């Protein structure tokens, strides 16, 4: 049944012939089972739900089973091997496509640990790139605020240096070590002391004003830093979710190609084995019996078609002869002439009545 054979016809064949088709059918069946497993795993990575994955995997397995069964059952044995190969070429191409589709999800499962390692590296790279990209949005503003804070602090330092210089000046004047070099607190000392006191008051005011401004800017920096961290935290789950089917296929492509290629060859051999078996197998008892039935039907249809053609040709000849003879009969001519006269009279009467009604 799985090989697409006529079971009633196969029952009357030898055991060897039956075993050949059992082998072909078993290959078709187990290929469908592998397709079901592969599709279920692939769909599970998409839906993350066992029931959906199993349901759609079953549908895919049945589809592959039906395709393989159709491919195998439509290859007919003939005397010309090249004719068989040409007949099987489209089916072999389809088998290659099916083998690729079946093998890829199983490769993902077989190399799952290696793929996870590749994905981890990619996630780390994405995390760093994401942080850099987010930092580019906030760093210029933070640096600008920090520069303004440094300027304000430098203003205080500069004012302190100037105030300290005035302090040293009026102290030196009092001690007589600089300025007028007169010991004691004279007018010059008083003047310099007043300048220092004014500068000290300005320094205190500057410290108060700049401290308020610096606190405000530091608060802005803290808010921007918190917002930056929040965006990093918000976007991180997206990076952690970078684990879908396409991501895993791309990660698989980064691994050495040879193991994947051998797995593909394995499934390709499984998928094409029923077709190749049909091609290389000699024409057996089942093929001869099937050919005999098909030949009988073809012959019968050819006979019926030829018979219909001859019946049509004969009927046309008879009709032509009959109507030619009828055309020469005087009685038929007179009868048809009489009926034509009656029809014309009826048409004339009807036209007369309609015109009379219009005039009235």
Strand segment tally:
0
Q: Give me the secondary-structure category.
A: mainly alpha
Question: What is the terminal-to-terminal distance?
Answer: 86 Å
How many domains comprise the coordinates?
3
Q: Which percent range describes the beta-strand content?
A: under 5%
> What value does the average pLDDT take?
82
Structure description:
- The chain is mainly α.
- The protein has ten helices and no strands.
- It folds into three domains: 7-111 and 255-283, no CATH class; 131-244; 300-359, no CATH class.
- Helix 2 (15-47) runs antiparallel to helix 3 (50-73), helix 2 runs parallel beside helix 4 and helix 2 runs antiparallel to helix 8.
- It has helices spanning 7-11, 15-47, 50-73, 81-110, 112-175, 187-240, 245-253, 257-280, 285-327, 330-359.
- Keywords: Coiled coil, Membrane, Transmembrane, Transmembrane helix.
- It comes from Lutibacter agarilyticus.
- The chain crosses the membrane at residues 21-44, 50-67, 261-281.
- This is DUF4407 domain-containing protein.
Q: Can you lay out the helices and strands and say which pair or pack?
A:
Elements: H1 7-11, H2 15-47, H3 50-73, H4 81-110, H5 112-175, H6 187-240, H7 245-253, H8 257-280, H9 285-327, H10 330-359
Helix pairs in contact: 2-3, 2-4, 2-8, 4-8, 5-6, 5-7
What features would you highlight for this structure?
360 residues, mainly alpha, 3 domains, 10 helices, elongated, DUF4407, DUF4407 domain-containing protein, transmembrane helix
Quick overview of this protein structure:
The chain is mainly alpha-helical and 360 residues long.
């Amino acid at each position: 049944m799985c090989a697409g054979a006529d079971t009633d016809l196969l029952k009357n064949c030898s055991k060897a012939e039956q075993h050949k088709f059992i082998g072909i059918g078993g290959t078709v069946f187990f290929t469908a089972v592998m397709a079901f497993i592969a599709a279920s795993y692939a769909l599970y990575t998409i839906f993350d739900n066992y029931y959906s994955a199993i349901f759609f995997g079953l549908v895919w397995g049945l589809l592959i089973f039906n395709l393989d069964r159709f491919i195998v059952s439509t290859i007919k044995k003939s005397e010309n091997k090249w004719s068989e190969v040409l007949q099987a070429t489209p089916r072999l191409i389809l088998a290659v496509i099916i083998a690729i589709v079946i093998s890829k999800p199983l490769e993902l499962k077989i190399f799952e640990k290696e793929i996870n390692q590749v994905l981890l590296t990619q996630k780390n790279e994405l995390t760093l790139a994401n942080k850099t990209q987010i930092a580019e949005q906030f760093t210029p503003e933070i640096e600008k605020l920090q520069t303004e804070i440094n300027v304000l602090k430098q203003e205080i330092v500069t004012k302190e240096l100037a105030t300290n210089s005035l302090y040293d000046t009026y102290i030196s004047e009092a001690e007589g070590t600089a300025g007028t070099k007169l010991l004691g607190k004279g007018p010059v000392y008083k003047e310099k002391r007043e300048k220092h006191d004014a500068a000290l008051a300005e320094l205190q005011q500057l410290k108060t004003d700049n401290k308020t401004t610096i606190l405000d800017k530091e608060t802005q920096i803290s808010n921007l830093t918190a917002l930056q961290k929040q965006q990093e935290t918000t976007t991180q789950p997206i990076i952690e979710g970078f684990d879908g089917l396409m991501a895993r296929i791309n990660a698989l492509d980064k691994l050495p190609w040879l193991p994947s290629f051998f797995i593909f060859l394995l499934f390709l051999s499984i998928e094409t084995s029923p077709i190749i078996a049909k091609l290389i197998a000699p024409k057996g008892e089942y093929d001869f019996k099937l050919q005999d039935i098909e030949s009988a039907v073809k012959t019968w249809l050819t006979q019926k078609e030829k018979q219909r053609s001859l019946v049509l040709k004969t009927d046309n000849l008879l009709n032509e002869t009959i109507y030619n003879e009828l055309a020469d009969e005087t009685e038929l001519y007179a009868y048809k002439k009489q009926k034509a006269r009656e029809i014309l009279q009826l048409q004339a009467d009807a036209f007369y009545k309609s015109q009379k009604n219009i005039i009235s």
